[in-house]
Specification:
Pfam family, one: PAD_porph
Organism: Draconibacterium orientale
Oligomer: single chain
Shape: globular
GO molecular function, one term: agmatine deiminase activity
Keywords: Hydrolase
Largest sheet: 4 strands, mixed
Order of helices and strands: EHEHEHEEHHEEEEHHEEEHEEEEEHEEE
Helix content: 10-25%
Number of domains: 1
CATH class: Alpha Beta
GO biological process, one term: putrescine biosynthetic process
Radius of gyration: 19 Å
Number of strands: 20
Strand content: 25-35%
Structural class: alpha/beta
Length: 347
């Protein structure tokens, strides 16, 4: 196998050049109905920030309705497709490169283990191909449940994930862990899978998606959610997760540089349920980091830490307090497509 990046099957890292970012916009028949204007305003903030740096594809129920929310639509492209909800990270295609050619892998999205209706979301990627929106790539479908938020890639053959999600009984119960690992290696050209077996956030519907807990920032660095309050319910699990991360090594056998992200003060919904506020749920785009903030005292520290990790990028804090009302955050509503994928649509 030739190790040059264009001569083998691989899952590009998020920090590699991107063609565009995809989001699926809230609509009146989604779970956002009771917070539609607030959620829509947050989506507009994310989209307009990203559009300063690259193209953004917005999947929506009605282009005219959604367009009216925007102040500026430069670099923003709208396409209609039915959807149940808005979590593009998990219902979008996952793009690999094989010998330099982009292949959009379409997995089954079953509402995070059959928790929520997801039939329309599961068809969005096929709809984009059917409408001729995605170019210079091919579609490949898999009879396997997988969400984009459940895996992290360094683009060099390492996948970081969690046992809590990938081994959950309502996703792929027919496969044992070693079989799932073999599938990940085959589909993504991965050489090794790093499994975290500890770590969770209260209010998370995803069964501990990796993108809420620990993120590969480059091939040698992992940013992770820390908790140093022994009285907090997350303390034990996140301390164990930190210990696991310390045992992981890079592709060349060295310990990872671990960067602890601040633990957000508890946030609650109106019924008193704790919500999954996390600074790990940032999105990398060309030239910038879109960082979710929550109106908390830890926000500024999170910005500073991300700036140290990504000194060459602009750190753009976006208030995502409304997003955690539906148990996700910024990375959860976005999906990047690598530079090899073309976008065939008029602005």
């Amino acid at each position: 196998m030739n190790n040059s990046s264009d001569q083998w099957l691989r899952l590009p890292a998020e920090w590699e050049p991107q063609s565009f970012l995809q989001l699926t916009f809230p609509h009146p028949h989604s779970d956002w109905a009771y917070l539609l204007d607030q959620a829509s305003a947050c989506f507009v903030d994310i989209i307009e920030a990203a559009a300063r740096f690259q193209k953004v594809l917005v999947v929506c129920d009605n282009v005219k309705r959604v367009h009216a929310y925007f102040r500026n639509t430069a670099n923003v492209y709208f396409v209609e497709a039915p959807s149940n909800d808005t979590w593009a990270r998990d219902h979008s295609g996952i793009t690999v490169l094989e010998n330099g050619k982009a292949i959009v892998q379409d997995y089954i999205f079953n509402g995070w283990g059959k928790k929520f209706e997801a039939g329309q979301d599961n068809l969005i990627t096929k709809s984009l191909f059917g409408q001729g929106i995605l170019q210079h790539c091919e579609l490949k479908s898999f009879d396997f449940v997988l969400e984009g938020g459940s895996i992290e890639s360094d683009g060099l053959g390492t996948i970081l994930t969690t046992t809590e999600c990938l081994l959950e009984e309502n996703r792929n119960p027919q496969y044992a862990q070693q079989e799932i690992e073999a599938i990940l290696k085959q589909n993504f050209g991965a050489k090794r899978i790093l499994w975290l077996s500890n770590g969770y956030l209260a209010g998370d519907d995803t069964d501990s998606h990796i993108d809420t807990l620990a993120r590969l920032c480059n091939e040698n660095t992992i940013a992770y959610v820390g908790c140093n309050d022994p009285e907090d319910e997350h303390f034990e699990a996140l301390q164990k997760m930190k210990a696991e991360l310390k045992r992981f090594t890079t592709n060349d056998g060295r310990p990872y540089k671990l960067v602890e992200l601040p633990f957000a003060d508890p946030c609650f919904d109106e019924e008193g349920n704790r919500l999954p506020a996390t600074y790990a749920n940032f999105t990398l785009i060309n030239g910038a980091v879109l960082l979710p903030v929550y109106g908390l005292k830890q926000d500024a520290e999170a910005v500073d830490i991300l700036q140290q990790i990504f000194p060459e990028k602009e750190i753009i804090p976006i208030n995502c307090r409304v997003l955690i009302e539906q148990h996700g955050s910024l990375h959860c509503v976005t999906m990047q497509y690598p530079g090899a994928v073309g976008l065939n649509i008029e602005n």
